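Annual report, structural modelling task.

Input specification for the nicotinamide-adenine-dinucleotide complex:
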Amino acid sequence: MKTFNIAIIGAGMIGAAHASGYRAHQARLASDQHQFVLHTVCDAREDAARELAKVWGFAHVASDWQAVIADPEIDIVSVTLPNFMHAEVATAALRAGKHVLCEKPLALTAAQAAEMTALAKASKGVSGSVFN
Ligand SMILES: NC(=O)c1ccc[n+]([C@@H]2O[C@H](COP(=O)([O-])OP(=O)(O)OC[C@H]3O[C@@H](n4cnc5c(N)ncnc54)[C@H](O)[C@@H]3O)[C@@H](O)[C@H]2O)c1
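The model returned the following structure:
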């Protein structure tokens, strides 16, 4: 049985949407081979992280995104931070071997987004961006 631990980095409006989505599909996507765990919510505002974790049933809170990405227990990372942080945080998560779901816009320039796309293609994880 492989366990995938999920972390959401950015506990604002869209972090809540990701939390709701993971929670809604957690049971449906589980199988004899896989389970998905609502592990950590990270935000620089720790009270916001704590509130989101409580509402959606995440076990842990954090305020340092670099520590979350360095944590080998974390398998899947949602990047739901302000736009200017997406490239830095998603790139670090990809380099750490995580599966990454990064909010739009992926980056602030097309060149930066192309670099991230190449990195995602070369990485072992399954990654994507989000447009609603
Ligand atoms: N896919 C869509 O349809 C859709 C819709 C709206 C917004 N978005 C995108 O989602 C992203 C988030 O939007 P939002 O409305 O939730 O913003 P928000 O401001 O509500 O949330 C961002 C959170 O990031 C936290 N944060 C900021 N700097 C941080 C740091 N250094 N470390 C940890 N946490 C930090 C803030 O405290 C805040 O809680 C934006 O990039 C936006 O473009 C996507």
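Strands lie at 2-9, 34-42, 60-62, 76-79, 99-103, 128-130.
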